[in-house]
Amino acid sequence: MRVSGKTPGALGGTGTSGSDVLVIGGGIIGLVTAWRAAQRGLTVTVADPEPGGGAAQVAAGMLAAVTELHYGEQMLLGLNLASAARYPAFVEELEEASGRDTGFRSCGTLAVALDSDDRAHLRELHALQERSGLESVWLSGRECRRLEPMLAPGVRGGLRVDGDHQVDPRRLASALLTACERAGVAFRRTTAERLTVERGRATG
């Protein structure tokens, strides 16, 4: 959203001045938004008490468009797959811009069944993946343990999805913070208490 001028109380009591874009929330999505806006020549301010904190510090970082497919969400599949296909190039650009490693790994995903209910669920997921034209391989418990020796002896089977990847959210957030700072993004380490809207536009 565009902001201009200085509005008391808009951002923790002090407001912003001269920013083209105000991003409220410095998580992964907020930081990417700020970075991209700054790359396009806009002046950007991010308001967050702890940029790069929050969910980014505890998330698993799964980039699993295939493994995390669910019934009723097939309409999202094309978007998820397209996003996953663009991720390696995004990571490469970010690591070059920040000089930091994001922990991106293209090692695939192994989803395992620990009991008969898990096995039935994964079998259903495998069938859905096949109907959706996705690549996944059903493995026996022994084959799963061959790939991952630390698995429990009782593993009943699993799915190997080579096209699903992962990233380290903590490293990703750190890289985004650095990239934003290098691109000239300003950070207000405070809570946004309210927005001031004038004539249908956020002004502070």
Automatic annotation (TrEMBL):
Where is each FAD dependent oxidoreductase domain found?
A: 20-201
GO MF entries: oxidoreductase activity
Keywords, A to Z, come to: Oxidoreductase
List GO terms (cellular component aspect). cytoplasm
**From which source organism is this entry?**
Streptomyces parvus
Write down the InterPro entries for this protein, in alphabetical order: FAD-dep_OxRdtase, FAD/NAD-bd_sf
Which Gene3D superfamilies does the entry link to? D-Amino Acid Oxidase, subunit A, domain 2, FAD/NAD(P)-binding domain
According to UniProt, the name of this protein is FAD-dependent oxidoreductase
